[in-house]
Amino acid sequence: MLVNTTVKPRGARFPGRYIQADGAMALLGQEAQAYGKRATAVVDRGIFDLLETEVMKALAGRVDFDLVRHGGECSEREICALAETARSKGAEVVIGIGGGKALDTAKAAARDLELPVIVVPTIAASDAPCSALAVVYNEDGTVAYDSFLPNNPNLVLVDTGLIARAPVRFLAAGIGDALATWYEADSCRRSGAFNCMKMPGVSLAFEVARFCRETIFEFGVAALSECDAKTAGPAIERVIEANILLSGIGFESGGVAAAHAIHHGLCQLDDVHHHLHGEKVTIGVLAGLKIQGLDDEFRRVRDFCRSVRLPTRLADIGIADPAEAKLAIVARRACRGGEIIHNEPMPVTETMVINALTALT
Fold this sequence. Notes:
alpha/beta; 50% helix; two-stranded antiparallel sheet
């Protein structure tokens, strides 16, 4: 095959469709029937009993369906079990409802069956719902590998009323994950690093990433107050859109860099395992700004994080004793060959990461 070496493409990827509203769950059956006559829906085990009746009501009369209680991990065994259930029932569309692991299981099973997939996030704790990525775990809960999927979800259906009723910590964590989107995309823009499509991002990707940051800065505090009141008000509507859609497009199409690399390093420590993805990413954002020497922006972001209940010190994510040997473990993982920290517009060493993390004690 001849390879064209003169074309230098840029690219972006998006979910097929995105619908957001208070009460959007009621649209699930109506939307599902566009993809087939029979659905297999996997529901997060933590909310299965709470949502079972609502999901059945939404699907009844629109499609034939089977409900499956998710087992807890997005593991190869769980993915295979869901795929086998969907295959044996003759499903024409797979639906995932819940948090990230349930959604990723649905996405991976649909990939294996070559079926369309609908995801219905019930928290806005990360930008994973819109992505063509499933994080696969071992049965013991440790990360096994990232599975890059050929397609983004066909439909992301976001019920903001459900998300507003979830614990506020999840929304705050999603703000932390979304906070990384602009800073990492901007690093990739300046360095010319590739995005998740293995090519530089288009201009739209960086503008979406910038708008994501502006949105959470403007509406973050008010959105948490609305979530405290379990109300899907105007601020939480904007922040949910930023956490899920804007950040999802921004990270896949703009690129990722230091913040998520440092997150990967932090995950090597037992101290942080009970903290949410976005909480650890927040520490990565702050450390990344220190690495770049952007002190004024560091102070701005730190103050914002405090206002939206996000961690700003290592102790806030359980690292009460940040010995250099412990930070060296983080830095070694973050800086290993081929890691995304090397998407930064300057060389980053393990010593630079240790120094940046030390500044957060």
